[in-house]
Amino acid sequence: MSTSPSSPDFLVVGAGFAGSVCARQLADAGHRVLVIDKRPHIGGNAYDCLDEHGVLIHPYGPHIFHTNSKLVFEYLSRFTDWRFYEHRVLAKVGDQLLPIPINRTTLNKLYGLTLSEEEAQAYIERVREPRAPLKTSEDVVLNSVGSDLCEKFFRGYTRKQWGLDLSELSAGVAARIPTRTNDDDRYFSDSFQFMPAQGYTRMFEAMLDHPLISVQTGQDFESVREVYTSARLIYTGPIDSYFKQCFGPLPYRSLRFAHEHLDQDSSFQAVGTVNYPNDHAFTRITEFKHLTGQKAKGTSIVREYPQDEGDPYYPVPRPESEALFKRYEALAEQETQVTFVGRLAQYRYYNMDQIVAAALKASDDILKRP
C-alpha cells in the first residue's frame, strides 16, 4: 500500500468490505484510489487480530462467512485461502442447550418427544398460528412456529437485541431465521461456508495491496471532505452523516462487546455461539477458536450487549426508519459524483457476501460510465 497520492481519481470512505472491494476493482482498471477510514485499522467490523494472549479474535463480534454466490466466493478467493467451517448455534432455554434454528432435535429435547421428520413437520403445522398478511416479526414467528416456541426462543432475544417487541419490528427481521424439521443443526445452509484461513485482516491486506491504492487509517471523512474535491467519491459510511443529519439521525442499534480470556485448555462451550434468549443482559457468547480452528493456549470469548448508544451496527427495521432513509436516499440520487454502497450507506442489514456483491456491481456501474 503506497503513500497518499496528491490527486487520486477516487476517494473511498471506509476500508471495510464495500470500500475495499470497490478500491481493488477501480485500481485493477487503472485508477488511482485513496482509501480512508476513521478507525486505526482496515477491515471495518470484520477486522480481526490477536488478543494479548495470542488468540485470534473478532473485536466487533463474530463474523462467519457464508454465501450461495459462486461469483462472490471466487472473487474473495483471490485474496485468501479458506478453512471449511459450518457454524452451529445453541440456545439456552431453561437448563437445556438446544439447536437453533429450531429443528427436529430441538423439538424432541425441549418437549421430551421422539418425533420423526414427518411427525415434526406435522407438529409445527399444528402449533403454528397462521397470520396474514405478515406485517411484523411477531406475525412471522407465530405464523412459523406458534406462541410457545416464540416465547422460548424469539421474544426475549428480540427485546434485548432491538429494545423493541417482535410486534414493533418489520417482518423482514424474523424472516432471516429458518425452521427445520430434520436434524440439520447448521446455522446456515449456504453452498459455501468457509473462514479466511489466515483471518479477515490478512484478506483485506491482500485486497488493498495494489500500487494504485493508498490507505490512510485514523482519517475522518470530514477532515478531508474539501481536500480531494476533484476525486469521485465512494462513500460507505452512514448516509445520514454524509448529509449532516439534515432530516435527523437514522436510528441504529449498537453493541457493547465484553471480551474475556480464559486460561483453560478445554473449550468454554460446545459450539461457536450460544444464544441466551431469556437469561442475562447479553444476547450471546461466542468462542473464537471454534470459528478459526486456531491452536493456542487458553481460549477467548465475547459477550454481546445490545444498546442504543455507540457505533452504528444494525439499522432499526421499522416503517418510520425506512421512510426517513428514503428522504436521504432521494438526496443521494442527486449526488452525481458520489456512489453510496454498503450497510451504512444503503441502510440495510447486509451479510458480508451481499456487501461484496453490491460493491462489485457498484464498481462495474462506475467503470461503464463515460
UniProtKB/TrEMBL annotation:
EC number: 5.4.99.9
Cofactor(s) named in the record: FAD
Every UDP-galactopyranose mutase C-terminal domain range: 152-349
Keywords, alphabetical: FAD, Flavoprotein, Isomerase
Pfam families: GLF, NAD_binding_8
InterPro entries reported in the protein's UniProt record: UDP-GALP_mutase, UDP-GalPyranose_mutase_C
Region forming the signal peptide: none
Gene Ontology molecular function terms on file: UDP-galactopyranose mutase activity
Origin superkingdom: Bacteria
Leading EC class: isomerase
Record family assignment: Belongs to the UDP-galactopyranose/dTDP-fucopyranose mutase family.
The name this protein goes by in its record: UDP-galactopyranose mutase
Organism: Ideonella paludis
